[in-house]
Amino acid sequence: MLDKRDAIAVPEAVKQVMKYAPKGEIEYVSIDKCDQRYLGDAVKASHDIPPFDRAPYDGFAIRAEDSVHASLDNPVEFEVIEEIGAGYIAKKEVGPYQAVRIMTGALMPKECNAVVMLELAKDIEKDGKPYMVIKRSYKPGDNVSYQGSETKAGEVLVQEGRRINPGVKALLATFGYGRVPVVKKPVVGLYATGTELLDVNEPMEPGKIRNSNAYMISSQINRVGAEATYYGKLEDDFDTCFKAVKKALDEVDILITTGGVSVGDYDYVPEIYKKLGAEVLFNKIMMRPGSVTTVAQYNGKLLFGLSGNPSACFVGFELYARPIIRSWFHSQKPHMQKVKATLNSDFTKANPFTRFVRSKLLFNEGKLFVEPSGLDKSNVVTSLVDCDSLIILPGGTRGFTKGDEVDVLLLEDQIGSEWPWN
Ligand SMILES: Nc1nc2c(c(=O)[nH]1)N[C@H]1C(S)=C(S)[C@@H](COP(=O)(O)OP(=O)(O)OC[C@H]3O[C@@H](n4cnc5c(N)ncnc54)[C@H](O)[C@@H]3O)O[C@H]1N2
Ligand code: MOO
Ligand SMILES: [Mg+2]
């Protein structure tokens, strides 16, 4: 007699899993190796930006008060006493009607408070000395980039848990982070179960299929910023699977298996959890695909029993494992971002349970549209190719038509979201 499974709602299932969200420790890596890692600590400005008053243009640094009477009818001459490029410091003191030829990024001479752009000044020579002439006045501060005008020392600029993108990396370099505090990657163990599975290099045989889930999931794990420790595929044999899972549990932070979670004669994952003494958080969810997604915890360690059906496996990972990995990385927005989009085609299937349709987003005349990325069946693999999002069709609905507004979860987004579930 089969054990009866009680289906729970998706938000409840996510809540159950999140109770066991582990948090990774911090390690330091060279800035050259920090791309796409998650910050283990906030980035705080260690100095002002700009760090000194500087010229934002190539031109002439002047004392603004010397320019007040300059106009088209009354050109004013300045003696050019020195020339400095970025990285150099003016040595001479600037007196009345004197100027320093200055290049973008150079420190302003301390007596000067305005910069005349090269294009607005005329170079002349008098008595063998360089002069420049202007025909308009300048106010103190005109064309000066003041110290701290962008940010002040001590300001927190990026929160811990943010994924390092090119902009974050630029800030890290600005503040001298040669070594960057990042969150250590979790060890995410991965097993694919199924006697029918062939390795990627094996030729096809009757009754067998190639193992795509292991590759798909390891790629999904990479997309979130972690790496899979792939243990290989397992035949549907209870003892083999039990031993493998038990051994892996000692080595991993999170364990993912695919296949064998339903009610079939060779679906051993539920029995494995039972024999281990793991607490099953749920084994049936009111969703399609992936209704049989099972999650258990063993001494606080999460075991994800994802469905064997590729699309169900894919969705189960994104809904339940992704926020756990992102929480591990200290993300304050571990869930997928949810946006509104307009359905670009009819979707006539009824939805007794909440349906997550693999979909692709498109922009048309500034509006966001979404449509299924292929055949909507849980055993389908081809619809995953163009899948960059999941349309959420609420349970208890009778199908949707082109033009309807729907909620969509973003898969490629790296910022994430706080709790997106109603
Ligand atoms: N009597 C019932 N049968 C099924 C139910 C049910 O409620 N009652 N649920 C169905 C649903 S829904 C799903 S989803 C699947 C879940 O199956 P399992 O998680 O037990 O997975 P398997 O039986 O191992 O495999 C299912 C399917 O997926 C293929 N597969 C498995 N592993 C891989 C892999 N690594 N790469 C590619 N494809 C894989 C496998 O060959 C099967 O075709 O159960 C339904 N049945
Ligand atoms: O778990 Mo199954 O994918 O709902 O179809
Ligand atoms: Mg099965």
TrEMBL record:
GO CC aspect terms: cytosol
Residues of the signal peptide: none
Domain MoaB/Mog: start-end pairs: 189-327
Pathway(s) per entry: Cofactor biosynthesis; molybdopterin biosynthesis
Short name of any one Pfam family annotated for the protein: MoeA_N
Catalytic activity: adenylyl-molybdopterin + molybdate = Mo-molybdopterin + AMP + H(+)
Gene3D superfamilies: MoaB/Mog-like domain, MoeA, C-terminal, domain IV, Molybdopterin biosynthesis moea protein, domain 2, Molybdopterin biosynthesis moea protein, domain 3
EC numbers on record: 2.10.1.1
Enzyme category, top tier: transferase
Molecular function via GO: metal ion binding; molybdopterin molybdotransferase activity
Keywords per UniProt: Magnesium, Metal-binding, Molybdenum, Molybdenum cofactor biosynthesis, Transferase
Alphabetical list of InterPro entries matching this protein: MoaB/Mog-like_dom_sf, MoaB/Mog_dom, MoeA-like, MoeA_C_domain_IV, MoeA_C_domain_IV_sf, MoeA_linker/N, MoeA_linker/N_sf
Cofactor requirement: Mg(2+)
UniProt record, GO biological process: Mo-molybdopterin cofactor biosynthetic process
Protein family according to the UniProt entry: Belongs to the MoeA family.
Role, per record: Catalyzes the insertion of molybdate into adenylated molybdopterin with the concomitant release of AMP.
Protein name: Molybdopterin molybdenumtransferase
Organism field: Schinkia azotoformans LMG 9581
Source species taxonomy: Bacteria, Bacillati, Bacillota, Bacilli, Bacillales
Gene transcribed to yield this protein: moeA
